[in-house]
Amino acid sequence: MSKLFSRNALVAIALAFPIAALAQPTINAVVNNYSYIPTGFPNSGIAPGTIFLIYGTAMSSAPAQVALSSSAGSGIPKTLEGATLSVTSGGITVQPAMYYATPNQIAAVLPSGTPTGSATITVTYNNVTSNAFSFQVVPFALGINTYFGSGTGLVLATDNITGEKITYTNSAKPGETIVLYGSGLGADTADSDTVYTVTPHAVNTPLQIYIGGIAATVLYAGSSGYPGYDQIDITIPDNVPLSCYVGLVGVTGSGSSLTVSNFGSLPVSQSGGDCNDSVFGITGTTISSLTGQGTVTYGDVFVAQLVQPAIPPQTGTVTNNIAFASFSKETGASFGTSSGSVYSIGSCYVTQVISFSGSIPTFTGLDAGTVSLTGPAGSYTLSSFLKGEYEAELPSGAITSSGGAFTYNGAGGADVGSFKTTINLPNPLLNWTNQSAAATINRSQGVQVNWTGGGAGTYVIIGGNSSDSTTGANGTFTCLANQSAGTFTVPGYVTSTLPAGTGGLTVENAASYSTFTATNLDFGIGFGFTGVTVNSVYQ
Q1: How far apart are CA 158 and CA 150, in angstroms?
Q2: What phi and psi values does residue 188 have, to the nearest 5 degrees?
Q3: Which end of the chain is more exposed for a tag (fewer CB within 10 A), N or C?
Q4: In 332-398, beta strands by DSSP E
Q5: Residue 10: in which H helix or E strand, if any?
Q6: For the segment 357-393, what is each residue's pLDDT rounded down to a tens digit?
Q7: Which pLDDT does position 365 carry in this prediction?
Q8: What are the pLDDT tens digits along the chain (539 aa)?
Q9: CA–CA separation, 22 vs 15, rounded Å?
Q10: 58 neighbors 25 (Cβ within 8 angstroms)
Q11: Integer Cα distance of 71 and 193 in angstroms
Q12: 428: preceding bond cis by omega (within 30 degrees)
């Protein structure tokens, strides 16, 4: 006992200051363990037999070390670190077993016998029960496991024969059979929700996997043996695009039950090994090197012409010529995750977020000194209002219909050395010919975009966004096509992930990205584009 207090003194202190009441557990979110799609989106439900995450506070005791419960022997437990879960759906209450439990996060398996429909979940800890959090139980809602565990970027995949992981330096090949992992194929009544199954079974779920917009052959889709953990064996199409960032997405169900997974990317090269991305101008070796670093310093510079709807009460459109440069530092892991954006022809990529009032991650800006731009019509110096960011609004005649070459010059500053890089705007500028088709978009049907013009060998970037002001749900998509195609149809499985609401559709024309170097800069990239945005209603 401390020599500062006698036993009687300690008792007196305890009586004078009684122990505070136990904090009530609180549930803030329920998401698929692999997709992380927030509640409020069309594809956010949890399917029976799925590993899902519960986020909150004071939900369990704090384990000395977080470790997965074993599904061997008696299986994963229904009470863990003092916590138990209760899910009520369709008048039936079930008790999910848990892989792990911490005060702020619990991973559990929704029993396969859970009825579909509106559901509520509670957690009880120390005989205190949380709020009842509402979510939807749906027939299928696949979440695909990604390499960085973020629901985005490089998907976790292995070769079906060797078991080797697919990486940026060990790419997948056309015609190769690979294995994907995740959860959410739907109720698995043939296998256990708590105990490892030696001989797992397929799940009878309508499923299609699209790689670069092309349907792969699905050979097996079902349990991996571990409760809630699904395995999908596919053969990569022979005509799949070759890139470090080929888009990959799963679509389950059909009609009103159709549900789209999270969007990831897969490196594909003709003979495996190091991938090479012709659009982004980067190789698998470079990506792996940057991702493995503790921090990555990088810069991007661009010049663009944007035609956008005028802000009410003004009508018509406004044309802006913009020069922008950004230099910053971030962690290597963050760079690897964010580099999952799709840059391969025929691919689409979706991002889904919910508005929130918490802190937003920020990057550290880098001083690059004075940055200037020289184009066909003159020279311009960019202004910096925030460390690491430089911008200039160019005069109306700075960018003409013939595009042209624009050269950035950086004098160098405290953090980044001098640099020089040239950007070529497409010639002639692209003309989006069916803009009226974007005024109202049927989310289940997608949208077709047609164009003329644009520079030979350039790319067309099609982006859309929609927001639901009631729920705060905001979804965006980006697709990439060759300029020579003259048309591209954004698939319905892409637009269906967006919330019904208002937003826009943008069509841009960009030349290949160029890279540049500077002292203390790990990676630099330059690009130029022209774009037109129209207001859209997503129904």
Answers
A1: 18
A2: -115, 85
A3: N
A4: 348-354, 364-365, 371-375, 378-381, 383-386, 389-394
A5: helix 7-16
A6: 444 445 799 999 999 999 999 999 999 999 999 999 9
A7: 95
A8: 333 333 343 333 333 434 445 689 999 999 999 999 999 899 999 999 999 999 999 999 999 899 999 999 999 999 999 999 999 999 999 999 999 999 999 999 999 999 999 999 999 999 999 999 999 999 999 999 998 788 989 999 999 999 999 999 999 999 999 999 999 999 999 999 999 999 999 999 999 999 999 999 999 999 999 999 999 999 999 999 999 999 999 999 988 889 999 999 999 999 999 999 888 888 999 988 888 788 889 999 999 999 999 988 889 999 999 999 999 998 766 665 554 455 789 999 999 977 544 444 457 999 999 999 999 999 999 999 999 999 999 999 999 988 999 999 999 999 999 999 999 998 898 999 999 999 999 999 999 999 999 989 999 999 999 999 888 899 999 999 999 999 999 999 999 999 999 999 999 999 878 899 999 999 999 999 999 999 999 99
A9: 17
A10: yes
A11: 9
A12: yes
DSSP H/E element including 334: helix 332-338
pLDDT at residue number 145: 97
Per the structure block, which two tokens stand in for 245? 């960032």
Q: Which CATH superfamily is domain 143-276 in?
A: Immunoglobulins (2.60.40.10)
AA identity, residue 191? D
Distances (CA, A) of 247 to 112, 195, 233, 240, 518: 30, 34, 17, 10, 31
Q: Torsions phi, psi of 119, nearest 5?
A: -140, 160
Whether this prediction's pTM lies above 0.85 is answered by: yes
Q: Return d(Cα 278, Cα 457) in angstroms, integer.
A: 11
Amino acid at 356: F
The b/e string for 446-457 (b: 16+ C-beta within 10 A; e otherwise) is bbebbbebbbee
Token digits of residue 269: 């090269």
Looking at 447-511, list the stretches that DSSP marks H as alpha helix, in order from N- to C-terminal side: 492-495
CA dihedral 450, 454, 459, 460 (to 10 degrees): -30
Matching residue, tokens 């995949």: 157
Q: What is the pLDDT of residues 100-143, one digit of tens each?
A: 999 999 999 999 999 999 999 999 999 999 999 999 999 999 99
Q: Residue 320 has which token pair?
A: 């802006």
Closest CA to 264 of 207, 339, 171, 349: 349
Task: Classify 534 as helix, strand or coil.
Answer: strand
The residues, ordered by sequence, that sit 6+ positions from 16 with a Cβ below 8 Å of its Cβ are none
CATH number (2.30.130.10, 3.20.20.140, 3.30.450.20, 2.60.40.10) of 26-137 reads: 2.60.40.10
CA torsion through residues 229, 236, 464, 302, sign: positive
